[in-house]
Design goal:
Elements: H1 11-17, E1 24-26, H2 39-46, E2 53-59, E3 62-67, H3 72-76, E4 83-87, H4 95-101, E5 112-120, E6 135-141, E7 144-151, E8 173-177, E9 182-185, E10 189-195, E11 200-207, H5 212-225, H6 249-263, H7 266-278, H8 299-307, E12 312-314, E13 320-325, E14 328-333, E15 336-338, H9 345-353, E16 356-357, H10 366-378, E17 381-383
Antiparallel strand pairs: 1-9, 2-3, 2-4, 4-5, 5-11, 6-9, 6-11, 7-8, 7-10, 12-16, 12-17, 13-14, 14-15
Length: 384
C-alpha cells in the first residue's frame, strides 16, 4: 500500500489545509484495496460476546438500534434493505484490518483508537450525525453516498430517536465513494452515509480526543494515587483572624501552591499521560497468537525462539508509546510504565513504531532480551 493514503493530495497540504478544518474527499487513495473481511466474517464477529457491535435498522422515519452479541437468527430476520451492522475494534481480530491502520502512521499512534467496520444493505446508514473526533472513512467494497453538512457540538439539538441524529441537517456537499476512496471528516462536522449497493463495506479509523474534563479528572486521580498521605495542608505562618468565619486570601495562596507544585512537575505529567494514552479502550483477546497457553516463557526459551529465526509481533490489542526523558526512552504499554534503561532505546523505538520486528533486526543484548521477555509474559508481545 501507499506510505500514507492521501493520493495526490500530499501530507503537508492535508495537514495544513484540512486536518481538523474541513472535510475532504481523497479519491483513489488506496486503489488496490480489498475489504479486510467479508460480510459473513463481520457477522461472525458480531456474534462473539466480547466484541462491541450494533445493528441499526431504518424504515422511513423510524429507527431501531440493537446491541450485540447477536445470533445467526438475528441476521436471518433482517429486512432486505435499510440496515447496517457496525463492529468496533476489528483490527484486534483480523490481521488485514490491523495492517490497514499502519497506513495512518503519519498521525501519532496514541491518537488512533481502532478500526470500525460497517456492512450495509442498500439504503442502510446511521443517519446524519457528528463525531467529537477526526475520522477517515475508507470504502473497501460497494458504494456509499456521503453527505456533508455544517458544524455541530454538544449543544446542537438531536432528534428523540434510539440513534443520535442531528436535527435540521443541511447537505452542503455530497460524494459517492467507491472502493479505494477515502473521506476525511473533522470533529463536529455533520455527515450522513447511505449505502448505494447491497454489498457496502466501509472501514472507519477513529481517533482519541479526550475532553478537557476527562484529562483533568484522570490526571488529578493519578496525582492523588501517587501522593503520600503524610503530605497535608499546613499554615505555620498563621496570623490572627478578624473573623473566624472567613476563608481569606492566604488560604487560597496556599491551595494554589499545592496545586501548582503537582501540576507543574513535568515528569509526573509525562508519566501520567504515557499511562493514560496507552490504556486500551477495548479489552480484547489476542487472535493473532496461536499459543493460547498461560505458561510463562523463560529466557532460555526466548533465546531458542530467536535462534530459530522467529519474529517478534505486537499484540494488536495492545498500545505502545514512549516518551524521551533525558537520555532514556521511557516505555508505556497498556497503561503501565515499563521498567527499562537507555540501552534499549533503539528497541523501544522499533516496538512503538512497528507492528512486528524481524529477528535480524533484534539486537540480542541482555537488556533487550529481558525487556522482550517481560512484554511477552505480559501478553503485549508474542513470537511466531
Amino acid at each position: 500500500m501507499n506510505p500514507h493514503p492521501l493520493g495526490e493530495l500530499g501530507l503537508n497540504t492535508f495537514l495544513n489545509q484540512y486536518w481538523q478544518k474541513q472535510a475532504v474527499l481523497i479519491p483513489h487513495a488506496l486503489p488496490n484495496i480489498t475489504s479486510p473481511l467479508s460480510a459473513e466474517e463481520l457477522a461472525g464477529l458480531a456474534c462473539e460476546e466480547y466484541v462491541e457491535s450494533r445493528l441499526i435498522i431504518s424504515k422511513e422515519s423510524e429507527w431501531q438500534l440493537k446491541h450485540g452479541p447477536f445470533t445467526e437468527k438475528t441476521f436471518t430476520q433482517l429486512p432486505n434493505s435499510h440496515w447496517t451492522l457496525l463492529v468496533q475494534a476489528v483490527d484486534h481480530y483480523i490481521p488485514e484490518a490491523a495492517s490497514l491502520l499502519e497506513q495512518f502512521n503519519f498521525i501519532p499512534r496514541w491518537r488512533i483508537v481502532d478500526l470500525m467496520v460497517s456492512y450495509a444493505c442498500k439504503g442502510g446508514g446511521v443517519g446524519p450525525h457528528y463525531d467529537n473526533y477526526d475520522v477517515f472513512l475508507i470504502q473497501t467494497q460497494g458504494q456509499r453516498l456521503w453527505q456533508i453538512g455544517g458544524r455541530y457540538d454538544d449543544s446542537s439539538p438531536l432528534k428523540e430517536l434510539p440513534v443520535k441524529i442531528v436535527e435540521n441537517f443541511c447537505v452542503e456537499q455530497s460524494w459517492a465513494l467507491n472502493p479505494g476512496d477515502i473521506l476525511y471528516v473533522p470533529p463536529g462536522v455533520g455527515h450522513n452515509g447511505i449505502a448505494q449497493s447491497d454489498d457496502c463495506i466501509t472501514c472507519s479509523v477513529g481517533f482519541r480526543a479526550p475532553s478537557h474534563s476527562d484529562i483533568l479528572r484522570d490526571f488529578t486521580d493519578y496525582l492523588s494515587e501517587h501522593l503520600n498521605e503524610s503530605m497535608r495542608y499546613s499554615d505555620p505562618d498563621l496570623k490572627p483572624h478578624a473573623n473566624s468565619g472567613e476563608i481569606n486570601n492566604e488560604v487560597f495562596s496556599q491551595l494554589q501552591n499545592i496545586l501548582s507544585e503537582q501540576i507543574q512537575n513535568p515528569t509526573k505529567l509525562q508519566d501520567w499521560f504515557g499511562c493514560y494514552a496507552t490504556t486500551p479502550k477495548y479489552d480484547s483477546p489476542n487472535y493473532f497468537n496461536s499459543d493460547e497457553s498461560n505458561e510463562t516463557l523463560s529466557l532460555h526459551e526466548l533465546k531458542n525462539h530467536l535462534s530459530l529465526q522467529h519474529n517478534l509481533y505486537r499484540n494488536e490489542s495492545s498500545r505502545f508509546a514512549f516518551i524521551k526523558q533525558n537520555h532514556q526512552h521511557v516505555l508505556f504499554v497498556d497503561g503501565e510504565k515499563i521498567p527499562s534503561n537507555s540501552k534499549s532505546n533503539t528497541l523501544i523505538e522499533k516496538l512503538c513504531h512497528q507492528t512486528n520486528v524481524c529477528h535480524q533486526d533484534l539486537t540480542a543484548t541482555d537488556d533487550n532480551l529481558n525487556l522482550i521477555l517481560l512484554l511477552i509474559n505480559k501478553g503485549a508481545l508474542y513470537i511466531k
